[in-house]
């Protein structure tokens, strides 16, 4: 294999990209693994675009390739050649703007050029398009589907109940440990670690608390560091994966459809969106829902709204008359590209 020649300009952008991904986002911005992965995916797609449309191999990329002209062409390429949705394209644009801002702060991009990048208009999205949600009847059918005479059925029931009741994200659910629960008689508050590594306390309904207590006792979850939901492998318990959650939801989705029940494709975020809509329709304010979901700017005008856990509980109890609506019823071995990707931190 011939010696790989890399220019100083390419070494510079590779170093900056690596530092951005593995130091800046993690240590300074405290971004979570899923966010880091999304940025890595963005770089991989952008480098693929540069090779396809600019005939630029990864070992020849420089800071100059991060220009407003290239980024605009990249957006068009994503749309026309890759059939990406506008929301996906806008996400890539936002990530590129963040990286270019980082390059500008470090003196690698001229402020005027960075300003041109910042001025790139995102793709239009259907702001008023209604997202799909589950009806109360559908949620009740889903949570009633697991066979609670079997251990896995009871686990699945508990998992889906908490997913709906708290409106938490899938990774937030799977990261829950016993130490994150605080019981007070017949209710429970759950400390959830959300995006930006910010904690929020979410109250659990009485019925959901009862289901959770029974599950904890049966599974003998007594160590504060134990994950609430785990899988057994080679005799050891491991944190459950998101793929496992998808399989669980798919199982009950298929079962209900076989029974003739009209049900949309089940995924964790559907439970989250459904919970938010159910709360809103029952009189809970958007400011409380914003905090409930861990959103920093669900509504820009409500970003400074604050409520502690008890205020949330009282507001929800009042809106629902004390009842939960649901429960009422080596180098030679590697290619040039692989070597350069490693330099970039990808």
From TrEMBL:
Gene Ontology CC: cytoplasm
The UniProt record lists the keyword DNA-binding: yes
One Pfam family recorded for the sequence: Phage_integrase
Alphabetical UniProt keywords: Cell cycle, Cell division, Chromosome partition, Cytoplasm, DNA integration, DNA recombination, DNA-binding
Superkingdom of origin organism: Bacteria
Biological processes, Gene Ontology terms: cell division; chromosome segregation; DNA integration; DNA recombination
Annotated compartments: Cytoplasm
Record has Membrane as a keyword: no
PROSITE patterns: CB, TYR_RECOMBINASE
Residue span, Core-binding (CB) domain: 15-104
GO MF: DNA binding
Residue ranges constituting the Tyr recombinase domain according to the UniProt record: 129-317
Main location: cytoplasm
Matching PANTHER family: PHAGE INTEGRASE-RELATED (PTHR30349), TYROSINE RECOMBINASE XERC (PTHR30349:SF77)
Protein name: Integrase
UniProt organism field: Massilimicrobiota timonensis
């Amino acid at each position: 294999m011939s010696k790989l020649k890399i220019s100083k300009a390419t070494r510079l952008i590779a170093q900056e990209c690596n530092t951005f991904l593995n130091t800046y986002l993690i240590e300074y911005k405290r971004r979570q693994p899923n966010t880091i992965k999304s940025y890595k995916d963005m770089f991989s797609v952008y480098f693929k675009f540069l090779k396809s449309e600019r005939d630029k191999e990864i070992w020849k990329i420089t800071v100059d390739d991060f220009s407003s002209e290239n980024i605009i062409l990249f957006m068009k390429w994503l749309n026309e050649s890759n059939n990406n949705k506008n929301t996906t394209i806008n996400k890539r644009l936002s990530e590129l703007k963040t990286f270019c801002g980082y390059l500008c702060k470090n003196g690698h991009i001229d402020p005027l050029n960075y300003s041109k990048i910042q001025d790139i208009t995102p793709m239009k999205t259907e702001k008023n398009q209604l997202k799909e949600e589950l009806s109360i009847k559908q949620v009740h059918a889903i949570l009633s589907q697991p066979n609670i005479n079997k251990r896995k059925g009871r686990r699945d029931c508990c998992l889906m109940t908490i997913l709906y009741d708290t409106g938490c994200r899938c990774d937030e659910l799977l990261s829950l440990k016993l130490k994150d629960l605080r019981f007070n008689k017949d209710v429970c508050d759950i400390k959830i670690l959300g995006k930006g590594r910010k904690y929020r306390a979410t109250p659990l309904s009485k019925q959901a608390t009862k289901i959770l207590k029974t599950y904890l006792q049966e599974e003998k979850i007594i160590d504060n560091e134990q994950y609430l939901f785990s899988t057994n492998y080679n005799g050891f318990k491991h944190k459950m994966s998101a793929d496992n959650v998808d399989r669980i939801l798919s199982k009950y989705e298929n079962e209900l459809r076989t029974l003739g029940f009209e049900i949309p494709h089940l995924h964790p975020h559907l439970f989250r969106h459904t919970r938010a809509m159910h709360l809103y329709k029952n009189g809970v304010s958007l400011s409380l829902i914003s905090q409930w979901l861990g959103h920093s700017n669900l509504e820009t005008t409500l970003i400074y709204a604050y409520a502690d856990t008890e205020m949330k509980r009282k507001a929800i109890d009042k809106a629902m008359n004390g009842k939960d609506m649901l429960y009422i019823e080596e180098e030679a071995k590697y290619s040039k590209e692989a070597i350069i990707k490693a330099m970039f931190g990808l």
